[in-house]
Amino acid sequence: MTLTLAITLFLAAALGGALNAVVGGATFVIFPALVFAGVPAVQANATSSVVVWPAAVAGVFAYREDIKLGRSLLFALGIAGFSGGAIGAWLLVHTPGAAFVRLVPWLLLFASLLFTFGGAISARLLGGGVDTSAGKAILGVTLTQFVISIYGGYFGAGMGILMLAAYAVANLGNIHTMNGVRSALGVLINGVAIGLFIYEKAIVWKPALVMIVGSTLAGYFGAVIARRVDPTKVKRLVMAVAWAMTLYFFFRAYHRA
After folding, report:
1. Exposure on the CB side of residue 180, measured as CA atoms within 13 A
2. How far apart (Å, rounded) are the C-alpha atoms in residues 207 and 205?
3. Secondary structure of 192-241 in HEC code, one letter for each residue
4. Domain boundaries, position 222
5. How many domains does the chain have?
6. Residue 174, SS3 per DSSP
7. Residue 203 binned pLDDT confidence (cut-offs 50, 70, 90)
8. End-to-end CA distance of the chain
9. Is the pLDDT of residue 257 over 70?
10. What is the tens place of the pLDDT at every residue in 159-186?
């Protein structure tokens, strides 16, 4: 890996970490950067999970006081997250590279739609206040978490938005509680996926280590950025990048020379 490439990957990861600290969307920067660097798509996806994980762990520490759910519900969600993440990761490493290349544009399209419209959907659900009985709520949100976790282990972009929407429907608490649970389960899902990726040797470590440093440093100073930058403007930037990457990967996968 050349010095120029290392610097480029470091900056891309730093940008992704900074974006995650403000509004999310690191995958839209980190995954394409790895692909552009010549990392095969499946390995790039696995590697991007490793890059953003340390900063996510720090985020859970920040939300530790807000995770105020009953032990039984937390346990059920944890089992759903662990098992779903493992299944998603297994599906990823057993997806043929050529098939995944054709699937990537559709995954990016789904994630871009979530990033663009997910906030409005979650806000509407939060305002609606759906009432469900405790038993049905636990069963419903656990099954939903399992399905979302499979997606998270497989690709992951937009997973947090899906979880917030599910928690809002199940009335799990206020936005801080839901964000705390989302952060903790995100670390669990990505953690079990990363464990399988390591076992399957699906991670390209040289670019990963460079990008982990950039992402973690940017995530650490993300609070300062969040206070000084208008999140709405940053979200517009992420949406522009997300849709540009989606169009690029559609062209890359389906263009006939």
Report:
1. 16
2. 6
3. HHHHHHHHCCCCCHHHHHHHHHHHHHHHHCHHHHHHHCCHHHHHHHHHHH
4. 3-254
5. 1
6. coil
7. very high
8. 30
9. no
10. 887 887 788 777 777 767 777 888 889 8
Q: How much is the pTM?
A: 0.81
Q: Pull the structure tokens for residue 173.
A: 């608490």
Distance in angstroms (rounded) separating the CA atoms of residues 137 and 238: 33
Q: CA 130, 134, 136, 141 torsion: positive or negative? A: positive
Q: CA separation (Å) from 111 to 36, 69, 137, 161, 216?
A: 19, 28, 26, 9, 23
Query: What are the tens digits of pLDDT across the range 115-136?
Result: 788 667 666 665 544 444 455 6
Count of Cβ atoms closer than 10 Å to residue 245 Cβ: 21
- Convert 99-121 to b/e letters by CB count within 10 Å (16 or more is b): ebbebbbebbbbbbebbbebbee
The yes-or-no verdict on residue 67 having pLDDT over 60 is: yes
- Answer yes or no: are the C-beta atoms of 215 and 52 closer than 8 Å: yes
Q: What are the structure tokens assigned to 162, written together?
A: 């899906």
Tokens 């936005």, located at residue: 175
183: left (phi over 0), alpha (psi -120 to 50) or beta: alpha
Chain length of the chain: 257
